[in-house]
Amino acid sequence: xxxxxxxxxxxxxxxxxxxxxxxxxxxxxxxxxxxxxxxxxxxxxxxxxxxxxxxxxxxxxxxxxxxxxxxxxxxxxxxxxxxxxxxxxxxxxxxxxxxxxxxxxxxxxxxxxxxxxxxxxxxxxxxxxxxxxxxxxxxxxxxxxxxxxxxxxxxxxxxxxxxxxxxxxxxxxxxxxxxxxxxxxxxxxxxxxxxxxxxxxxxxxxxxxxxxxxxxxxxxxxxxxxxxxxxxxxxxxxxxxxxxxxxxxxxxx
Length: 253
Ligand SMILES: NC(=O)c1ccc[n+]([C@@H]2O[C@H](COP(=O)([O-])OP(=O)(O)OC[C@H]3O[C@@H](n4cnc5c(N)ncnc54)[C@H](OP(=O)(O)O)[C@@H]3O)[C@@H](O)[C@H]2O)c1
Prior knowledge:
Elements lengths: L1 E3 L7 H10 L4 E5 L7 E3 L5 H8 L4 E4 L9 H13 L3 E5 L7 E2 L2 E2 L2 H11 L4 E7 L11 E3 L5 E2 L4 H13 L5 E5 L5 E2 H12 L5 E3 L7 H11 L9 H6 L6 H7 L4
Parallel strand pairs: 1-2, 1-4, 2-3, 4-5, 5-8, 8-11, 9-13
Antiparallel strand pairs: 6-7, 10-12
Helix pairs in contact: 1-5, 2-3, 6-9
This protein binds NADP nicotinamide-adenine-dinucleotide phosphate.
């Protein structure tokens, strides 16, 4: 049995579908179960984690961006060890643990990644770049100006996660990007062209960004998020999906 946390979210929902398509028995963890294959689980409720992890061999670990502390991940890793889980695939973020202007980026992701790596459980860490799906927000708030990002289709993240969950990627940290680096205004222009309607982008002054996220924003503004890797194609054996291809599939959403 595979447990998918964040199963109602961007990548977890796609991971579930891909595993179901492969015929793998799956349990989705959510605070609001609505399907027969869902289980109640709240990262803040250790008993619910033990229950969700009962009989689980591999888990996809996604924690929410609203709380930039590692507590949820630490609780999950402890419960997974207790339950005898054999493999954890954790969704982290590009740049986590790098230093920029004397600050460590995304220290919560770094602490959580390290907890998974030190758990004694087989692990894979995924560090994706900006999700293409961020462009589906209305309006799009742009904190990174004209800086480019290796923007990635979350379906590619999910496909890599599934390969890692099935096995053969233990002890690997993958930096997952799309094939081309693009700025937020460039992404908006492409999506607007495909839709035939302009995408509203609101520029955000980095001075007003929440301090918890500011170093990451400044890192990206300095161009460090423009990296493009071949990790997606090396794991999947096909090229990563480009932004325009993704946009054509999401023109109506
Ligand atoms: N967006 C990007 O560009 C980007 C780039 C790189 C990395 N990331 C990373 O990707 C991760 C996911 O971000 P996202 O925006 O795509 O979120 P998401 O996966 O769409 O949503 C978060 C999920 O977390 C679950 N959740 C929230 N609080 C929970 C709790 N207390 N207990 C159990 N489950 C809880 C929610 O499930 P329920 O509400 O159903 O319980 C939901 O399924 C974050 O760590 C973020 O840093 C994002």
